[in-house]
Amino acid sequence: MPFYSIDQLKPGMVLATDVTDMSGRLLLSKGQAIDPKHLNIFKMWGVPEVQVQDDQENGPEDSPTVDPEVMRHTAESLKSVFSGNDLNHPAVAEIFRQAVFHRSRSGVSPTVERSTVAASESTPSSNSLEMRQKIRNRDIKLPEVPTIIFKLNDTIADPFSSSDDIAQVISKSPGLAAQLLRIVNSAFYGFPSRIDSISRAVTVIGSKEISALAAGIATMEIFKDIPKNVFDTQAFTHHSLTCGVLARILAAGGNIRNTEQLFVSGLLHDIGRMVMFRYFPRQVGTMLAAATDGETCLYDVEKRVMGFRHTDIAADLFEKWKFPVALSQNVVFHHRPTSAQDPARAAVIHLADIIAHALGEGKSGEWCIPTLDTAAWDKLRISPQTLATIIPQAIHHLNFLTSIFTGES
Ligand SMILES: [Fe+2]
Ligand SMILES: [Fe+2]
């Protein structure tokens, strides 16, 4: 019996086997005909593919064809940005294959765009440790925690908080509430019936999950006003969202619980860089210029110029804003996941970030593809074949979700 990825299924096809979610709960029984509502349920629970009876169709549709010459050119160009990775590793090979196909088909530049921000007058800082010390001493202030995020994180930490408490906090910000409802009503969540209130969202999705999602959205909102000449915030939001979407689907595919927290972790994974762009534009100019030399990744340039990395800033910010430790760990260790308290969860963000860069969806200022930590990959029970299903699934949801975040629709 053939396997069909979710995007290849058509209403009327009949299931050849039972379909279960990641915890083994039965979603749909063998012999049942698939209808459009079921497709949303599969997506929501992260079911990457199902087996259908082989007398239904002539097999999955062929993927759209792409000019082999374009593919060859894209592959050649991409090799240089994958230079820190072993293309013979099965996961890297699959990511590379998907990236070549996606970039060739969608017209994403085959070469990775490097920043055009000019170097500032400043020289690499010799007193960067002093600067971090200043941040810690609050001489250079990290932004104060906005009331809504403070209240949301307070609610997450309080075991006695009720769904009404959470709904009340979120409803005080009509813009946030509306954005949240659009997200939970999107195909990415795939609920069969419309969720029309925050209280209902809390009931259906869970209080801590909705609070974390609201805190993540509100945090991204705060850093939106970075001047365009410093960095393209919209492209940054798209990179962040790509990582979040991939993280949620990867987690479901790898049987990892609490997929919502991983979505928010992905969304906020580079928040430290947003803080850098917003508060240290002079040093950022130096960094971005230094990172275009074609040899050094921005992650390492940060250390050289600033004396610390965006993940260090995230650690300070999350501590100050009292984000849950588990979420902070996923973010702080996304470049070295095996050092996290829960390496598998940090590995999800690590992998999602690599894929987001490989696909060329959005920008974070980084021009190279981060090197896959193969020990972290081994902690994930995801096969390279599953990546082939997960990546197109994530791409499918991206544009609509980005339009919600950037307020373009
Ligand atoms: Fe990062
Ligand atoms: Fe990133």
Automatic annotation (TrEMBL):
Region (Disordered): 111-130
Pfam families reported for this sequence: HDOD (PF08668)
Positions of the HDOD domain: 142-337
InterPro entries in alphabetical order: HD/PDEase_dom, HDIG_dom, HDOD, RNase_Y/CdgJ
PROSITE patterns the record matches: HDOD
Molecular function GO labels: hydrolase activity
SUPFAM superfamilies cross-referenced by the UniProt entry: HD-domain/PDEase-like
Entry keywords, A to Z: Hydrolase
Name used for this protein in its record: Phosphohydrolase
Organism: Desulfosarcina widdelii
